[in-house]
């Protein structure tokens, strides 16, 4: 997955793994997926949950995100992170690849593990293919927004 290891990342920024105090994130828990990776993968992984790419398809969005401009949210994240032009250019293609892998890996894990099987049966089998299709469809809009000045 990584061409060059740049850091060890948590790699699972799901809202259930973030501790909040007074509405602000203060800690991460559950480091079972932590491993060496790249900064760009780490950003895409965070955006999977927080842009959110995982619930990009309007059918899967929470009411609070119904009208979210996800390409704009990605650009705000990229600006805050201080992403370079090269990183911005690589983000959308990597997001498409990651969405495909998350879908494929979750399906394969569901065949082997009862915990993953439950997650798959409780909606993953519907949400993940839609998320993959949505990220693929929105990739050009995300790339375009990332190429615009902040």
Blueprint of the fold:
Elements: E1 7-9, E2 18-21, E3 24-28, E4 35-37, H1 39-50, H2 70-81, H3 85-112, H4 114-147
Antiparallel strand pairs: 1-4, 2-3
Helix pairs in contact: 1-3, 2-4, 3-4
Describe this protein's structure.
The structure is a single chain. The protein is mainly alpha-helical. The chain has one domain. The chain contains 4 helices and 4 strands. Strands 1-4 form a two-stranded antiparallel sheet.
- Beta-strand portion reads 5-15%
Going across the major beta sheet, what is the strand order?
1-4
Q: So how many helices? A: 4
- End-to-end distance: 29 Å
Rough outline: globular
* Oligomer class: single chain
Q: What proportion of the residues is helical, as a percent range? A: 55-70%
H-E order: EEEEHHHH
| Model regions low in confidence, pLDDT < 50 over at least 5 residues | none
* Number of β-strand runs: 4
* Number of domain modules: 1
* Sheet with most strands: 2 strands, antiparallel
Global structural class: mainly alpha
Average pLDDT metric: 93
Gyration radius over CA: 15 Å
């Amino acid at each position: 997955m990584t061409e060059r290891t740049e850091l060890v990342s948590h790699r699972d920024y799901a809202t259930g793994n973030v501790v909040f105090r007074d509405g602000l994130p203060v800690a991460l828990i559950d480091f079972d997926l932590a491993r060496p990776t790249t900064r760009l993968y780490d950003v895409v992984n965070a955006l999977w949950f927080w842009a959110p790419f995982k619930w990009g398809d309007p059918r899967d969005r929470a009411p609070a995100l119904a009208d979210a401009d996800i390409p704009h949210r990605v650009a705000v994240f990229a600006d805050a992170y201080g992403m370079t032009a090269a990183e911005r250019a690589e983000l959308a293609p990597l997001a498409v690849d990651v969405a495909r892998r998350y879908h494929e890996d979750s399906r394969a894990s569901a065949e082997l593990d009862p915990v993953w099987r439950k997650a798959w049966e409780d909606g993953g089998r519907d949400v993940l293919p839609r998320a993959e299709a949505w990220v693929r469809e929105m990739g050009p809009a995300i790339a375009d927004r990332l190429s615009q000045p902040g």
